[in-house]
């Protein structure tokens, strides 16, 4: 295995499937199957999950809501998604812990770095909920931050397409896929694969990002054994 400890970043939208809102049971099942496979391979898996399928801070703020309050709602949405994923994984027999950046002891553990690492060593899947715990951030930045804190070998950014293209492959038939890009190219070209704060954090600390299609069966395993799947973002 090329990567022993990975951080998987899932957007909230990924959970909604074609319905565009909320949580789709079939998608959840598919995602948990892939995570279970990684767990069975002995890969240490940490997950950061977004909340865009339920609430996005910016969307609320554009309708006049206080931005911080709206971001708090967004972070709560990530907790809902985390619990749904934990439930799906545990139904398959995968030991899972949700660690929240906002204390919610009756529901999940608070985020404590050393505890997170210990869970990983015991081969429990951990799900980081509530982003960074701060408004004005995104779960992409939370993924970059936590990946650094737990010393992950790789951030796996799951998308619906199989990597980064020079233009939207859904709209343009002649779009060309990149096998590899430098962090600085992602920033300079304004590629919206992860927000710039997340890319910068990865660039400063040299943590590799792989953008790939998680919904193609077997892709996730191929990435961890080192096959060229999706697009690599490196130094
Ligand atoms: N959020 C936040 N701080 C964080 C992470 C998330 O305030 O550290 C809020 C923010 O409002 C964001 C929402 O949670 O819009 C959902 O996260 P995100 O948009 O990253 O979800 P995704 O696009 O991955 O579904």
Question: Can you describe what's shown?
Answer:
The protein has one domain (5-234): 3-Layer(aba) Sandwich (Carbamate kinase). The chain has helices spanning 12-16, 25-40, 57-62, 67-91, 113-121, 139-149, 183-188, 196-205, 219-224, and strands at residues 5-10, 44-49, 96-100, 109-110, 125-129, 154-159, 164-165, 177-178, 180-182, 208-213, 231-234. It contains nine helices and eleven strands. The strands form two sheets. A nine-stranded mixed β-sheet has the order 4-3-5-2-1-6-10-11-9, with helices on both faces. It is globular, with a radius of gyration of 17 Å. Uridine-5'-diphosphate is lined by residues 11-13, 50-52, 56-58, 71, 74-75, 77-78, 131-132, 134-135, 137-140, 142.
Ligand inventory reads: uridine-5'-diphosphate
The Rg value, from CA coordinates, equals 17 Å
User: Spans of 5+ residues with little confidence (pLDDT < 50)?
Assistant: none
Q: Return the average pLDDT rounded to an integer.
A: 96
**Biggest β-sheet: count, sense, barrel?**
9 strands, mixed
Distance linking N and C termini: 21 Å
Please report the first level of CATH classification, the CATH class: Alpha Beta
N-to-C SSE string, H for helix and E for strand: EHHEHHEEHEHEEEEHHEHE
CATH fold-level label: Carbamate kinase
What's the structural domain tally?
1
Hey, roughly how much beta strand do the residues contain?
15-25%
Helix content: 40-55%
What would the principal axes of the Cα set say about the shape?
Answer: globular
Can you identify the CATH superfamily? Acetylglutamate kinase-like
């Amino acid at each position: 295995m090329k990567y022993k400890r990975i951080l998987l970043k899932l957007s909230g939208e990924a959970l909604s499937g074609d319905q565009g809102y909320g949580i789709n049971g079939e998608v959840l099942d598919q995602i948990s199957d892939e995570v279970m496979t990684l767990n069975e391979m002995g890969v240490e898996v940490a997950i950061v999950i977004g909340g865009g399928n339920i609430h996005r801070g910016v969307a609320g703020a554009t309708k006049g809501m206080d931005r911080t309050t709206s971001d708090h709602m967004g972070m709560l949405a990530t907790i809902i998604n985390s619990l749904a994923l934990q439930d799906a994984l545990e139904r398959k027999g995968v030991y899972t812990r949700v660690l929240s950046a906002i204390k919610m002891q009756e529901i999940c553990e608070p985020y404590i770095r050393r505890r997170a690492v210990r869970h990983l060593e015991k081969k429990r899947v951990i799900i980081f909920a509530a982003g960074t715990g701060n408004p004005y951030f995104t779960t992409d930045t939370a993924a970059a931050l936590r990946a650094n804190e737990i010393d992950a070998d790789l951030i796996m950014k799951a998308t619906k397409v199989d990597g980064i293209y020079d233009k939207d492959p859904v709209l343009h038939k002649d779009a060309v896929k990149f096998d590899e890009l430098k962090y600085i190219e992602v920033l300079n070209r304004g590629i919206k694969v992860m927000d710039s704060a997340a890319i910068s954090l990865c660039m400063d600390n040299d943590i590799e990002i792989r953008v790939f299609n998680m919904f193609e069966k077997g892709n996730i395993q191929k990435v961890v054994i080192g096959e060229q799947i999706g697009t690599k973002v490196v130094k």
